[in-house]
Structure formats: structure tokens, C-alpha cells
Amino acid sequence: MSTPLKQIHLAAHFPGVNNTTVWSDPQAGSHIEFSSFAHFARTAERAKFDFLFLAEGLRLREQGGKIYDLDVVGRPDTFTILTALAAVTERLGLTGTINSTFNEPYEVARQFASLDHLSGGRAAWNVVTSWDAFTGENFRRGGFLPQDQRYSRAKEFLATATELFDSWRGDEIVADQASGTFLDDARAGAFAHQGQHFDIAGQFNVPRSPQGRPVIFQAGDSEEGREFAAAGADAIFSRYSTLEEGQAFYTDVKGRLARHGRTHDQLLILPAATFVLGDSDAEAQELARDVRRQQVSGATAIKHLEFVWNRDLSAYDPDGPLPDIDPDPGEHTIARGRAQVRMYRDPLAVAREWRELAAANKWSIRDLVIETGNRQSFIGSPATVAETINSFVQADASDGFILVPHITPGGLDTFAETVVPLLQERGVFRTEYEGTTLRDHLGLAHPGTEAHQERAAS
């Protein structure tokens, strides 16, 4: 008896805080006008995607006091965008990144519960921590937390928010006009939490939402991040680009679920992926080379090299050889607000590896950054891309993909029109939404009242 084909999950990431986006392309539009967000969301919904995803940029990133040449300056508030999109979509999930380091559980829980009500059960929260003092300067508390404290606060933040979501059973509102009774429980929403990071008590003022709780996403790849996701997230992002790396990550994270009392299907693994489509594989490869040259200008290549060298390299020619000086492994990074610097734990070793690659392939600085900086990308004809996506999912390298187009807002259109129908023909992607909530789309259970009952009995 053959194993049933896995159903693929697809989502769309509206870019804008990285240089994936080619804002200088003539086809590119605004990254702040609502029409761009609406176009993007409507395309994703027309293609029956699970959700739209917004990242978060809490501060414009700098290097040498200057904004990156391909960074898109500014990002409107996540909740404002998602709430507006709830009014122009009907089924598409609405996922936003909200930081647990600089916010408070009551405020965030209230916002997500409200979004879930306004959208009819389509809200999702990507829980992240902030890692650097540079970002912290924008906030009252300033500074930043060491990694162990960041995750400690994040775990308690999520646990506290969950207590708030579960403080309503969902059946307290009777609204009996004849008797004048609105609530059958005057203590609906009551909560009290005391912990290392939060000491709050009161009544949560948003009734239980359609999903009970928003879908929870997590993006950390560290040991702490993987364990955090296994313990309580509904989905985790993955950054692995090859089939073998994806399978190893999939096996590791899914293997952690049992010790938290969870099953294999209670956590989805969803890598981000760029794509370039052409009428043929050869045409797509040529287009992809052009896109990468647009994404990595000479100035961007030098800035990227500075992540590792931790030195001012502005005097070097991006079309010339790598610097012959070694990186400065100093504690203070030249790049401010760039999370990528954390990827290079041993800059001297990275520099040696990159020099060997550049020498073997006769790469310039720009060539090296282009060749080593790719995330998982699907390049080819629609048929090739559909086959590759399906092969990753069926081989348990992922449960689907979050697609990141390089053109905003129209970069998703061709994928929706050409690749999605091929996946539907294979029987691995829906032709219609079968439910109304994001949990329905993702195959996740709706939290019931058991958590409320357990807390009430304890």
C-alpha cells in the first residue's frame, strides 16, 4: 500500500527589510503604500496560499553610519498592515513578527486576539527576540538581553500570553436581552501571573477569539530556538538550502516533539525560498544571474564582506580580489542591526574558506558574495520548480515553503498563475480552501477549553 502524498503548505513573505527585494527594478512598486500590500495579499489568496507573512524591522540597519544601499527604508507597523489586510481578504492567514524583548504580554495578546476576531480566525504570531543593543536604543529599557535571558523571557512571554488567551472559555457571553444578562461569569478573563520576568494580574478584555489562540511561529535555529519551537510553536522557519540539510533539520526538530508530549504533525517546518521563473530552465538560470547582480551591488558586496572582516573595506574594489588582511575578531561589530553577523562565529576560519573558494573559482568579492549568499532558491521553468518543491516536501525536507519574490508587489503573480496549477494537478496542493481559519489551512487543532478548566481546577 503506497504512502499518501503529503499536502504542500505555501505562504508568501512581503519583503522589505533585506536586499532580497530589487526596489530599483522598473516593475517594483511602493513598500509602504497600502495598494502594494493589498495586491500582494490578494494574489496569495487567489492562489489559495496558507498565509501572508510580514517580518519586522525595529531599526534601520547601519554600517559606518550609513543605510545599506539596497535596504528598503522603513516598514509600517505590522498590526496596522495586517488589520487593514483583514478587510480586503477572506481566507488568507495573516502572520506578523512581534518582538518579545521590548513588548509586554498583555498588550501583544490583546492585539493578536483582536486581529483574530477582526479576521475571522486568521491571525498568527512569529515570536522573536532581539539580540543587539543597537536595536534596544530605540526603546525605553535600552540595551539587550544575553541569549539565555532572551529565550527565558520569550518562553515566559509566550506562556503568559497563552494564559491571557485561555482566560476566556468562549461561552461566557450570553447577551440575553430579555433578562439583561450579558455575561454569565463576572470573572471572565481573570488572570494572575507571577514569574521571573512578568508579574501581572487583572482581567483580559478581549473575549476568546475564533482560533482560541493565534498560530505561533518561531524562527530561531540555535539549540535554544529549536527547543523553544518544539515545546510550544505551531511552525518553525528553516534556513537550510539543500535537500540533505533540510532533512537533517526536519528530523532533529520533529524528533524533539515527543518529550514535550506533542506529535509529529503538531509542528510544521517551513523554509523561506526565493524563486526565478522562465519559459525554460536555461532562460530562468540567465534571469536568476541578472537578479542576483541586481540584489548584490558592488557596495552591498563590500558591506557583506565587512560582516566577516569587521573592518572598513570601502577602499577595496568589489570586482577585485578578497582582502589580504585578516578579519578583526573583535567583540564590537562594524555592522549594526544585521543579524547575519551572528552566522560567522569564527571569522578567521570563514575568511580562509572564502579565500580558497575565490581562488579556485577566480571569483571577485562581488562574485563570492553572490555565490555564497544564496538562500534556498527555486530556479527553472514552472514545471521544474513545481517538481523541486514537491520533491523537498515528499522527502521530509520541509512541510512547504514561504516564498519571497524579488519584485514587490507583483513578483508573486507568475508563480500563482503557472506553478500553483501544476501542484494542484499533482494533487499536492488545494484547489479551494476547505476551512475558514489559518489553523484549518495548516491542519492544526483549535485549542479548546481544557486549558482553562485545568487552570480553574488547580
- Could you list the spans in which at least 5 consecutive residues all have pLDDT below 50? 451-458
The CATH topology annotation of the largest domain reads as TIM Barrel
CATH architecture of the largest domain, by name, is Alpha-Beta Barrel
Rg, alpha carbons: 23 Å
Tell the overall outline: globular
Q: How do the strands of the widest beta sheet line up side by side?
A: 1-2-5-6-11-12-13-16
Structural class: alpha/beta
Intertermini distance: 47 Å
Task: Give the integer mean of the pLDDT values.
Answer: 89
- H/I helix tally: 15
Considering the protein shown, what is the CATH homologous superfamily of the largest domain? Luciferase-like domain
**How much strand content do the residues show?**
15-25%
Could you say how many structural domains there are in total? 2
**Helical content band:** 25-40%
Strand element count: 16
